[in-house]
């Protein structure tokens, strides 16, 4: 996640609580767990403070990433801002969540971040592909700027993970399939997750949790219910055409290509109504056909994308065409922003 140190961190002066918070922030930043942003105003206060030289050196190192940090911050849905004013603890100001300098460890702020996916292997790989495509990062850049440990979700596993967070907080975002059209109630897994996070006091209302993003009651916990039937629907039409004709490049792929043209006559370039229908379709249960897109599709496309530069260019071009649809862009941006937020960093600097 992104941890910001601005002048608010020094509002009650330099004391052991601030020194401890800064040291933990610097250690997490160097280990590559989180991005640490130090504003110019805070850096002026640091240089003229009684902080130890080792803390000043660590903050100078972090401040060197100031420009790059602004780019990371602009893409994040939650930034943790350290404050020296206990009255501001828990204050939510836009994307900034203020945490009192003496409370950071209570929230597990500096632990390794995680993201929870339903079909762990396939979903995790494809979500990383979406991050790369959406943010315009190649594999090396994504590996440097983002890291979060994938965790198994789905069914009772998601419920267990929410309870585990309460017992030992750690930065996390949970991604749940909607399991139905976006305009209808969530499926069982997402519904249970929403109930749990409200019952356990992580979100104050179900509506806030359903809206996605990070919790209003906790600084480093997020839930994202996909704005589509399931993750396979985010293999968007032009990307699906690449999957069928280039990545699969076999009879099964051509059959699926023909099916999509029958289901969506304008395939792969859909209008807004067609885009909404695409996101709501259960591609695992197509009448008289069966599974047109499934978890294997996620793995096949992800592996093919990472195989070589030519494949990556082809899928990037397809994704760009799909992003001309505001409907598709909103669906992808929502999940990418929240997953990006939990794992944003500047690399391992040890």
Structure description:
Strands 2-1-3-5-4 form a five-stranded mixed beta sheet, sandwiched between helices. The chain has 15 helices and ten strands. It has two domains: 106 residues; 239 residues, no CATH class. It is an alpha/beta fold and 350 residues long. The mean pLDDT is 94.
Q: What distinguishing features does this structure have?
A:
350 residues, alpha/beta, five-stranded mixed sheet, 10 strands, 11% strand, elongated
From the alpha carbons, calculate the radius of gyration and give it in angstroms: 22 Å
**CA(first)-CA(last) distance:** 18 Å
Q: Mind describing the biggest β-sheet?
A: 5 strands, mixed
**Helical run tally:** 15
What order do the helices and strands follow?
Answer: EHEHHHEEEEHHEHEHHEEHHHHHH
Tell me how many strands there are.
10
Strand order, largest beta sheet: 2-1-3-5-4
Could you say which structural class the secondary elements and strand pairing correspond to?
alpha/beta
Strand content: 5-15%
> Mean of residue pLDDT?
94
The helix fraction, in percent, is: 40-55%
Number of domains: 2
What spatial form do the alpha-carbon principal axes imply?
elongated
Low-pLDDT stretches: none
